[in-house]
Design a protein that fits this description.
By secondary structure, the protein is of the alpha+beta class. Strands 1-3-4-5-2-7-10-9-8-6 form a ten-stranded antiparallel sheet. A hairpin with a 5-residue loop joins strand 8 and strand 9. Helix 1 runs parallel beside helix 4 and helix 2 runs antiparallel to helix 5. InterPro entries: Fatty_acid_synthase, HotDog_dom_sf, MaoC-like_dom.
Amino acid sequence: MISEESEPASDSLTRAYARLLSNELLPSRSGSLKASDYPLHCRGPVAVSKSRVKAYRDICGLADSDDLPPLYPQVAAMPLHLQLLSTPGLPGRSVGVVHVGQRVKWHRPMPGSVPHLDIEAILRPGKAHPRGQLFHMDTHLYDEEGALLWEGESLFLFRGVVPDLADDPLDRVPPSAPGIPEASESRDFKCPAGIGRSYARISGDWNPIHLSSMSARLFGFQCPIVHGMWALARALAEVGEQADHSLIGQELEAWFNAPLFWPSETRLHVSPGGGWFQVDRAGRRPKPALWGRLTPIHEYASAKRG
């Protein structure tokens, strides 16, 4: 069973990061995986730490509940994600990968009283991107009977890969944010100093672009970047205060259009009913950094593990 500790990184996370760093030092093995080697897959039970769940709620501003937080499976799956990202032969650099988009489907309630979570992760290549290579990380959470409770799809950009733009690249990833709907409510949205390190201690995501100005500059950023999943969780917490529906049976589409730096003060816009939201990066000309929308899942049905 994979340990999910409340410490900065469990043994499994430490080993995974060690593999990740060792692969970075072996450029001759970069990109050696063939198309037939994909998708990469791993699955395992992840033990639940109540203290870690509470710390996650606190840092994301979430209210107490008997169920797991809406995006918590993504955090719990970090050891599995790192196991896949540390696979020798992936193209480009896995350290410094950029999270550009996220989809989530909430099929059923996720009880917080279970001793462990049955999670699987799948990594598959996407299309070429002008700045590198896109990859999809699929995450599934099952109950004890094998029914699908939660599923997420993360879109990652591996920079440092020479793109084959002849391979029908996506028109625009991430897509431009739509205009702010009328009657939307706006409020302050703060990214406090040190939030990258604080969230890393809880999530296990120690990507250097989030930790300090010095480490972020190694990957081309002048300031440390807020974790996209922290900003998304905080935005959903604010949306929840205004939403007139449960997340169960809903699907989230979210895009990270521009980095949010810490510390900074930004603005959050939420549409009436909470079906759409946007976080603007502060400045003389505010720029959409994160936007998302919630829609009903069209096919709300039981899914079994294969």
